[in-house]
Write a structure and sequence with these properties.
Elements lengths: L1 E2 L4 E2 L9 E10 L2 E11 L4 E5 L6 H8 L7 E6 L2 E2 L4 H5 L2 E4 L11 H9 L8 H14 L15 H13 L5 E5 L7 H16 L4 E5 L3 H7 L2 E6 L2 E7 H5 L5 H10 L1
Bound molecules: adenosine-5'-triphosphate (ATP).
């Protein structure tokens, strides 16, 4: 819903959080990768998922996107269970879990038009073309859209990946370490894009990253996972508390 006067999106107030993660446990053989993890993400928030290497962030994202099933607990996206109503839940999600894969000898636009064929809400060529143009503009790739993907920088490929995730106009975007390998300009463009997705398009974003300065700049909510357990969930301000910044708060949390 666009509020033209303010130029910002008015987020409809719903009864439930967009994301509800309830007591998720995941074991592989005898190892517990996630232990009773619970937290919520409200509509229109940017939520940062932090944790040391091997903490279980990607595993949690794989559960959220329905790629793997939890042993117990559940995740509700827009009220739909990823375990029992996987397709309904998935309809709310656009995600980049591993690096997005494109055909390098095709243009960015052709790659997106190809992927748009998979979206049930883009039934004909005209609808697909229109949506591809929209997402290219959102990620500021419209000027380079007709060049081959092999000529793109890593940052451009990452933005094209976000354009792909946006094709179905999902309410929730899940980005697993999207800033990996990007140079400072690429990181800045990514930051601006994520903030624009929230402010102009009303998207909810869950982003995992080890770049704490970046998360401090963009996140409303922070969730910290350590050894498969949720050790913190709250606002950015609550997380920082008396510390100078997110990094100091995180380091103390990990060392006490
Ligand atoms: N299929 C699997 N079988 C066995 N162990 C696994 C499997 N998948 C993940 N793991 C282990 O689970 C732990 C959590 O992995 P995960 O990738 O979720 O961590 P992460 O927090 O995303 O780490 P990083 O920050 O390094 O990306 C790791 O020790 C990993 O080796």
């Amino acid at each position: 819903m666009q509020d033209k006067r303010a130029g910002r999106v008015v987020i409809p107030q719903t009864e439930h959080p967009l994301v509800e993660i309830g007591n998720v446990t995941k074991k592989v053989r005898r190892r517990t990768l996630l232990k009773d993890v619970s937290f919520n993400v409200e509509q229109g928030e940017i939520c940062g998922l932090l944790g040391p290497n091997g903490a279980g962030k990607t595993t949690l994202i794989r559960v959220m996107t329905g790629l793997i099933r939890p042993d117990s607990g559940d995740v509700f996206i827009g009220g739909s269970s990823v375990v029992r109503q996987r397709e309904n839940a998935a309809a709310h999600i656009g995600a980049i879990v591993e690096s997005p894969i494109f055909f390098p000898y095709m243009t960015g636009r052709d790659n997106l038009e190809n992927l748009a064929l998979l979206h049930p809400n883009l039934p004909d060529r005209k609808a697909r073309r229109k949506r591809v143009n929209e997402v290219l503009e959102i990620v500021r790739m419209d000027k380079r859209a007709d060049e081959k993907v092999k000529t793109y920088s890593l940052g451009m490929k990452q933005r094209l990946g976000i354009a792909q995730a946006l094709l179905g106009d999902p309410e929730l975007l899940i980005l697993d370490e999207p800033a990996n390998g990007l140079d400072p300009m690429g990181i800045r463009e990514l930051r601006e894009l994520i903030l624009r997705l929230k402010h102009e398009f009303g998207k909810t974003v869950l982003v995992s990253s080890h770049l704490l300065d970046e998360l401090q700049k963009i996140c409303d909510r922070i969730v910290v996972i350590r050894e498969g357990e949720r050790v913190f969930a709250g606002s950015r301000e609550e997380m920082i508390g008396r510390h100078a910044g997110l990094e100091e708060a995180f380091v103390e949390m990990m060392t006490t």
